[in-house]
Amino acid sequence: AGAVGTSCARCTANTCTPVTNETCAAPLIAYAENFDSSASSLEPATTSTTVGWRVLSSYEGAQVRSGLYSLYFGDPLALTYDDGGQTVSGEVNWMVSVPEGDGWVIEWWQLLSLDLSDVPLPINDVFQVTIIELESSSVTTVFSNKPSYGAYELWSKQTVDLAPFAGKSVAVLFSFTSGDGAYNDGKGIFLDDLRVIRWAPGN
Fold it and tell me: Where does residue 107 rank: exposed (0-12), middle (13-18), buried (19+ CB within 10 A)?
């Protein structure tokens, strides 16, 4: 049981409203991935040292939000996503069965260090998250971030409502493309603390 008077939230299909001065149960967590397990559910099967997605430790230079590991897109040795002036891209997916009922969301933390160009050229780096329904093969883009000039160097939390996918098996696809081979001298992308969660009192 939660503590009386703790601030929490009551969630419906579309919104979460803060609730105070009542018993708040612990959140329900259907899936969680912080990449600190030796059997990460998102780690791509690769031993290559070239640019791509892989689990990386803070000892190897990874930015981490919790624990010692995060999911990284880039070159783990150079800590950049530059590949000799070539366009780079890659994707990794997370297989999830979304529970029935309202209030379920997917949340993740991201740190983007992309396109360090300081000259007026088009910014082509695109990080995108899509959800693919396995039964119907329908694809829904739930997040797309096309950065402006300069790098994002801070952790930020992203949350997506899973109400349209309740009761369905889905693949959550994290993908990136540089669009070109120029100005790919940022560190790349770090993801951490992925969860499918429902914040609701009384459960």
Answer: middle
* Cα(75)–Cα(4) distance, integer angstroms: 48
Question: What is the C-alpha to C-alpha distance for residues 203 and 102, in angstroms, rounded to an integer?
Answer: 12
Sign of CA dihedral 20, 25, 29, 35: positive
| Residue from 63, 162, 171 nearest 107 by CA | 162
Place of tokens 């082509």: 124
Backbone angles phi, psi at 163, to 5 degrees: -55, -40
Q: What is the mean pLDDT of residues 173-202?
A: 86
Question: Tens of pLDDT along 39-92?
Answer: 677 766 554 558 899 999 999 999 999 999 999 999 999 999 988 888 888 889
Q: How far is CA 7 from the centre of its chain?
A: 26
Structure tokens at 57: 């430790």
Q: How far apart are CA 156 and CA 160, in angstroms?
A: 13
Residue 84, sorted as left (phi over 0), alpha (psi -120 to 50) or beta, turns out to be left
Report the Cα 39 to chain-centroid distance in Å.
Answer: 18
Element (H, E) at 167: none
Can you tell me the distance from the alpha carbon of 15 to that of 54, in angstroms, rounded to the nearest whole number?
A: 33
> How far is the C-alpha of 170 from the C-alpha of 159, rounded, in Å?
16
Nearest 5°: phi and psi at 194?
A: -85, 135
